[in-house]
Structure formats: structure tokens, C-alpha cells
Amino acid sequence: MELPATTTRQNQSQRKWPITVAVAEHDPIKRKCLEQYLRNSDQTITVLTDSDFFYRKKTERQFKSHDILSLHEQTFARIKRLEPRILFVNTHQLTDESIDLLYNVNQNCYGTLPIVLVKEQTDDDQILNALKNGARGIVDCSKSPLNLPKVIYAVDSGEPWISRRILEKIMGKIKFTQ
Length: 178
Known about the structure:
With 178 residues, this protein is α/β, with parallel strands linked by helices. The protein has eight helices and five strands; from the N terminus they run αβαβααβαβαβαα. The chain has helices at 5-14, 28-41, 50-56, 71-82, 96-108, 124-132, 148-156, 164-177, and strands at residues 19-24, 45-47, 86-90, 113-118, 137-140. Strands 2-1-3-4-5 form a five-stranded parallel beta sheet, sandwiched between helices. Helix 5 (96-108) links the parallel strand 3 and strand 4 (113-118). Helix 4 (71-82) packs parallel to helix 5 (96-108). The longest helix is centred in the first third of the chain and has 14 residues, at 28-41. It is globular and about 50 Å long.
């Protein structure tokens, strides 16, 4: 699903504040690459990182030791701390852990809208499960070129971002449940 270019441009020009974006990725090198790509793609997007967060703090604050938290708990704590408007969950395969993260974000981070980056071979039922648990967009990152700012503006304005193939599957499931 793509927005017409005029709608996207109108949304960009009417916006008075930047859209805050964070990346949930376990591999710090991949996370930094995606953050850099987002930073360079559009000036109205502000990418939130851990270093930005700590520099903004005026007072020292004690954090729970990261050693006692699971990777999932560390990721969720980071999302709550950064409070992004848009969250990219970079996963090539949706796992139960990814679905749990989406559920927790949906239940506890009310202003955050998750977008999941997947590869095209991802199971349709897992994608539907991700949407059911709070994903506002599903982007196939194996296709080029990626226009992530367009995805960000669409999701920020309240529109879902999913492929026509997935939309067809959703419509089929709705049709059979009546």
C-alpha cells in the first residue's frame, strides 16, 4: 500500500515537529546501520539512540544492571526509555520473542507505533500474528529500493503499511470467519 506522493508531501509540510524513530535490533552493528540510513533519508525524522538519551539527562540516574535482564527485557526497557513515535523492529524471521515484544509495546508504550522489517519468506501466519499483536506495518526489507520515510509518514498518520499479498490473506481470513 503506498500513499500518493502529494499526500506524503502535504503531511511533511504540515508537520511542525519531527517524527521520532527508534530501532529494535539485537545486533548493534545492524542497528547503527539502520539508524544511519534513517538519519540520512529525511531531515524531518529524528532517530533516537541510547547515546542521545544519556546526553540529554541532566541528573545521574541509577539503572538496573543489564546483566540480570534478558535480551527481550533489555530491548523493551530501551524502547520505554526512548519513547519513540515509530519503532522499527528489525527481524528477518518473526519469532515468538518478536511477537511478545510487539505485544508488550502495544500494551505499555501507547504512543509508539511498531513497524516490522521482515524478509519475503516469512510465514504469513506469523505476519498476521504480528499485526494482531500491535504491528502497524510490515515491510519486506529484501525488496529494493526501500522508501522508509514514506512508510514512517503513512504509519504516523494512522495508516497501516502492509503488502497487497498480506491484505489478501487478511481478507480471506475475515471472509471465512463470518
